[in-house]
Amino acid sequence: MPTFGLLGPLLVHDGTQERAVGGHKVRILLAALLLAANRTVSKDALKEALWGARPPATADASLFNHLTRLRRQLAFLGEEPQRITAVPHGYRLHVAEGEFDVEVFQGHVDAARAAHLRQDWDAAAEQSAAALALWRGGPLADLPEFADAEPQLPVVRQLAEARLQALEWGFDAQLALGRRSELIGRLTALAAEHPLREAFHRQLMLALHGAHRQAEALEVYARLRATLAEELGVDPSAAVRAAYQEVLAADAPADVPPPVPAREPAEPPAPAFRPLHQLPADAGLFTGRDAEVARLTALLRPGAAPGGDAPGRAPRPVVVSGMGGVGKTALTVHVAHLLHADYPDGQLYADLRGFGPGGRRSPRDLLVRFLSDLGVREESLPGDMDDCAALFRTVLAHRRMLLVLDNARDAAQVLPLLPGSGGCAVVVTSRHTLTDLPAAVLLPLAPLTSADQEVLLAALCGSERVLEEPEAAAEILARCGGLPLALSVVGGRLASRPGWPLSLLARRLSSGTGRLPELTVGSLDVEATIGMSYVAMRDSDLPPERAVARAFRLLGVWPEHEVTPHSAAALLALPVRDTARLLDQLTDVHLLQSPAPERYGMHDLLGEYAAERLRAEEPAESRTRAELRLLTWYVAAVESASAISVGETQPPPPLPGPPTALPPPFADAHEALAWYVRELPAIQHAITRAGALGRSDIAWRLAVGLFGYGDTYWWTGIWDAALRSALDIAVAQGDTVGQAWLYRRIAVAHGMAYRNEECLENLGIALELFEQAGDITAQASILGNLSALHVQAGRAGPGLAYALRSQELYREVDVPGSESLVLGRIADALQLAGDYAGAVEHQRRRLGLLRALGRPTALATLLTNYGAALQHLGERAEAFAALDEALAIRRQLGDHGGEADCLATTARVHHHFGEWEAARECWQACLDLARFHLLPQREQECLAGLAALEDACAAGDLR
Question: Domains of the chain (ranges plus CATH)?
Answer without folding.
Answer: 4-97 (1.10.10.10), 180-257 (1.25.40.10), 276-444 (3.40.50.300), 450-529 (no CATH), 531-618 (1.10.10.10), 626-774 (no CATH), 850-954 (1.25.40.10)
